[in-house]
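Re: [ENG-882] Designed sequences occasionally contain unexpected residues at chain ends

Forwarding the minimal case from QA. Structure tokens:
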């Protein structure tokens, strides 16, 4: 019997949680925790596209910011990225209203 109440989280939820962990560490001025959390984000990347390399560069900047004790800057960057992923995962009614019934979604 499958327990539907305990399904594995979807990848986007895991990504948002990783961002939350990194942001909390930055807000706590926790150098080691911030580095570890950002490393998790970097480690999840497959550096085979320009987009993934751009994310890696952003994460590297966040790590450098933490190394220079700019926890606020790193947290702001990470928060912006996290919020963008959240918005992308939650289409609004306006998103659906722009789609016409005769248009393919993909």
């Amino acid at each position: 019997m499958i327990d539907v109440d305990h399904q594995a989280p979807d990848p986007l939820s895991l990504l948002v949680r990783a961002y939350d962990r990194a942001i909390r560490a930055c807000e706590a001025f926790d150098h080691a925790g911030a580095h570890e959390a950002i490393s998790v984000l970097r480690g999840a990347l497959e550096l085979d596209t320009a987009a993934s390399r751009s994310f890696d560069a952003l994460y590297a900047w966040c790590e450098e910011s933490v190394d220079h004790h700019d926890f606020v800057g790193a947290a702001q960057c990470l928060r912006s990225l996290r919020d963008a992923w959240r918005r992308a995962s939650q289409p609004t009614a306006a998103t659906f209203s722009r789609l016409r019934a005769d248009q393919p979604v993909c």
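QA comment: On inspection the terminal residues look reasonable. Helices lie at 11-27, 31-43, 50-67, 71-89, 93-98. Proposing we downgrade this to a documentation issue.
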